[in-house]
Amino acid sequence: MAAESGKIARSNDRGSPRRTTSARSARQRPVDPQAAVAVESARALQAWFNTPGNARALPWRDRPAGERDAYVVLVAEAMLQQTQVSRIADRLPKFLARFPTVSRLAAASQDDVLAEWSGLGYYRRARNLHAAARMVVDSHGGELPNDVESLRSLPGVGRYTAGAIASLAFDKHEPIVDGNVARVLLRLHGKKAASDDRAAQAWLWEQSTNLVRAAKRPGVVNEAIMELGATVCLPAPAAPRCERCPLASLCVARAQGTTARIPTVKSRSARKALYASTLLVRRRDGALLVEQRPGGGMWSCMWQAVTVERHDRHATAHELSVETGTRIAADTPDERFIHRTTHRDVHFEVWTGVPGRAKSPRPRRGEWVDPRRLSELALSNAQRRILFRDAGLFHELGPLSPRPR
Ligand code: SF4
Q1: Ligand 1 centre from 187 Cα, in Å?
Q2: Nearest residue (CA) to ligand 1, atom 2
Q3: Does the Cβ of 191 fall within 6 Å of ligand 1?
Q4: Is residue 23 part of a domain?
Q5: Please, which residues bridge with residue 354 across strands?
């Protein structure tokens, strides 16, 4: 968008950013440059978002921002945390078809909710969503509250999600800051900081507050800046598409040629390692040996092939056999792979066990399950990879008993 007469100038002759108004405006009244940028930005973002072809058509955008069903916003925001939009485009409608209202979600069992979430990862989100639905039913009469303080008291609802629900569902002037919003704001103002830097966070929330308070339609402006960050103001190594940006004439980073260096990169702490020895055991009728993880910690309450974990090394075949009460079929694992979670590298070794030939008559851990029912269980992506890897073989083993144990 070209700079217009009477609007904010963001760079002087030497290329340094400055914020002035036209001489006529300055004579009329003193203008806070930050507030003026917020007004111009909000206006440009709203116009851009409302122009057909700029925003993506996504399943949860069935109504204009500011008028959405708060429950749908809650579920969509829970799914979108740490997960790409393309991955949830078909999962959200499926989840909502199974749990169409907050009351239906609250009445469901946690196992059913986790199973419907299966494959999306970060299962704490599903548990929090379920707990939040129960709190909405128990404490708010089955209606999501419209103020951020009450929203933030719900499990899993932080400042960002509360702001998203308040603005997208109730059109409230509440700010939001996520990675996309932070990148746009840092570049717009030419601030050299990391998006998740603690010191920068207060500044980012202040800028987002200025922006949304300057908006006529806060829900639209909040969604527009998120969309801009996701589709135009792209993170490195991709180059931002400044030529398509409605904020181009206001953007300090663009004027200074620093878009590739903003946001800065924060040094990461070392990732932790975990060593998982997993035993794949099939009974003659095809049933698989699985167990449920304890509550709390990684993959809480999810199902898995029987697994022994160590923090410093893998369990040996002997240790695995003794701890599970199952004989191991070979001296070496069938497969090794590394699964990366947010904070850990989980080093998997996958072994094959032999049912019925262990020294103990029954495995000491786990229970037998029909592999055709695996899709009903809440499984991490790593366990899906392990348990489904021989799915074709399972179906060649003949009929299974209705409820193998
Ligand atoms: S002009 Fe470029 S760097 Fe600045 S906000 Fe727009 S896309 Fe991002």
Answers
A1: 6
A2: 242
A3: no
A4: no
A5: 327
